[in-house]
Amino acid sequence: MLTLFILTLQCYIASSAILYSLKHHHNNLHHQRPMIHANQTTCALFVGTWIPDDTYPFYQSSNCPMIDPQFNCKMFGRPDSDYLRYRWRPLNCELPRFNGVQFLMGMKGKSIMFVGDSLGRNQWESLICMIYNEVPQTQTQLVRGVPLSTFRFLDYGVTLSFYKAPFLVDVDVVQGKRVLKLEEIDVNGDAWKNVDILSFNSGHWWTHEGSLQGWDYIELGGKYYQDMDRLAAMERGLKTWANWVDSKVDKSRTKVFFLGISPSHINPNEWTSGVTTASSKNCYGETGPISSTGTAYPGVFPEQMKVIDMVIREMNYPVYLLDITMLSAFRKDAHPSVYSGDLSPQQRANPIYSDCSHWCLPGLPDTWNELFYTTLFY
After folding, report:
1. Which of these is catalytic: 118, 126, 262, 357?
2. What total number of domains does the chain contain?
3. What is the pTM of this model?
4. Nearest CA to 283 among 272, 293, 273?
5. pLDDT digits over 232-271, tens only?
6. Active site includes 62?
7. Which residues span the domain enclosing 74?
8. Which of 335, 355, 357, 366 is catalytic?
């Protein structure tokens, strides 16, 4: 019986040949250079600089029909606003200004689905707000659920959905135990079929430990493990996702995107040269971007991004990597910090409660969607 088999393998150590092979493979990633993506001209969309721009933001949180409390920084008392007024300028070009009506007309009758973790939800809510700001009188419909939530612009027949799947591959519950199935994607994949635009993301949950860990057991090659090398597990899971895209997605109908790793700002040494102050404990109290020309990554480049880069390179399907990792790394000022949800005054005064992983809305994910819009229509 499967449940008994799992329980008898609680102490099974991750030392099989397949695990050794995976670990050896991911170790080679340290010698790979990340891709720099550009369009068909000399414009490098994901390399550039942040410049002040008083025409931003695109919307106010009070005018958007939906922003989760964890992203709604103004509602929960963030006093500064300069972080809202920065525009991304790519190398050798300017981004076209986002146009919500053009987006709806271009996507008329089509469906867009964001699949992944809460960073994908961050982007999904941002896009809804950006569009709604320009067509506030249009008929809409919101259906919240788990794992699927859907927002519809009814007058245009445009559907924007978010499907929660932090690992992309399936997680089954067996006798109360969560089993992360690195080689299965059938349950999740069924929900992604027949969508016109698919945008995936995954990364942060693979490294979570303790109470934040998203599984009790990992299934691989018919065996069950309590743990294994995390990057090796991520690589195997993403290859399962890649095989699904290569074999199940209709290239003539569906465009597929992958959102790069969204960086966290939990280590102030990455922007203070090792000198910390009372206002530089993680992203707490940060009100301006990291100064940079946008050509070198500040801090330690995320190892998960190297895995994503490698997997996408090996695919047959032309997945577009929305490579927001470096441009987002400069924005230490754009996280909710202690303005995330209903914290007490005592908690707001303590940097330990800072959310330095998600992003305020309005805010940085709006730029992700400017880039998304650019790659769709230009």
Report:
1. 118
2. 1
3. 0.89
4. 272
5. 999 999 999 999 999 999 989 999 999 999 999 998 877 7
6. no
7. 2-377
8. 355
